[in-house]
Amino acid sequence: MRSETLNIAGHDFHVVVAGDPSKPAILMLHGFPEYSGAFSELIAELQGEFFCIAPDQRGYGQSWRPAEVEHYAASKLVGDALAMLGHYSPDTPVAAVLGHDWGAAVAYGLAFRHPDRVQKLIVANGVHPIPFQRALAAGGAQSEASQYINWLRADESEDKLATNNHARMMGIFSKHMDMSWMTPERLAAYQTAWGTAAQVRGMVNWYRASFLKVADPGVPLSEADLPNLPPHLLHVPMPHLLLWGENDTALLPECYAGLEDHCTDLTLQTIPEADHWLMHQKPAEVAQHIRSFLTR
Q1: pLDDT digit string (tens) for 74-128?
Q2: Is the CB of residue 216 less than 8 Å from the CB of residue 143?
Q3: Would you give the distance in Å from CA 194 to the centre of its chain?
Q4: Beta-bridge partner residues of 236
Q5: Distance between CA atoms of 71 and 84, rounded to whole angstroms?
Q6: Residues 6 or more apart from 184 whose CB is under 8 A from it?
Q7: Which residue range is the domain that position 198 belongs to?
């Protein structure tokens, strides 16, 4: 693995790459509260067969971390990823885009808006906006599990997350999850990537910029309260693999209920004894599912 700096529209983005650039490329997009290091175990499994590209996304790690919420609109986040595809695979579509957590939102955006640049879509414990908004609005278990979103959107949440050596951040990271993979050395690397409260602001701005709405538990939102999500604009036309750690307590199975209605070719693969952090917990198994999907 090696690190590179890619300039996009005058701003620097940190990118980890591994493998032979002549081999099929996979763009790997992390979520909250990770960074490119989210894929270190998976890259070790796949770099012999694929060219792996794992950036610190906007607002994270060593990449550009603007303070203003407007810089985190979905179109801008997708634009970053599209620029990376243009740099690393200018002449052909990449073999796959892989998105985890918030990275899935960007991966879906590429699939919706730029299907000519992506041969296959892989999502690991991430959500399509239509089923997810439905679950968030229902006032049920997912609404309750997602109350942290409103907390993160509140003013000065970044200050609370950075206080006491990121104790609150680690609490969100680890709540009801298996964190046996988080060694002291890895935690130190994450804390360095998170940085100061001013830097953490970029991470939580992804939540502040999102149009999704979260119902209070037991109080469903009405259709009139919800954002307009036209299905014809949010269709996945390429083969799509959804990998799901069955023990995830942040994203529940209702998040992907009805996903097949928005996909031309969907494969669902659940992974027992894994949760939201499946790529750290079961990297060999995740890699094998990806390998099988991309070579079938």
Answers
A1: 999 999 999 999 999 999 999 999 999 999 999 999 999 999 999 999 999 999 9
A2: yes
A3: 16
A4: 263
A5: 17
A6: none
A7: 2-295
Q: Shortest CA distance to 136 belongs to which of 29, 30, 220, 47?
A: 220
The whole-number pLDDT of residue 296 equals 86
Residue 161: exposed, middle, or buried by beta-carbon count in 10 A (0-12, 13-18, 19+)? Answer: buried
Q: Which residues of the chain register pLDDT less than 50? A: none
Alpha-carbon span 97 to 110, nearest angstrom: 8
What's the CATH number where 163 sits? 3.40.50.1820
What is the Cα–Cα distance from 158 to 169, expressed in whole angstroms?
9
9, 83 in Cβ contact below 8 A? yes
Domain count, the chain: 1
**pLDDT score recorded for residue 224:** 92
Residue where the block lists tokens 């603007």:
66
Closest CA to 26 of 284, 295, 262: 295
What is the four-CA torsion angle of 210, 29, 241, 179, rounded to 10 degrees? -90
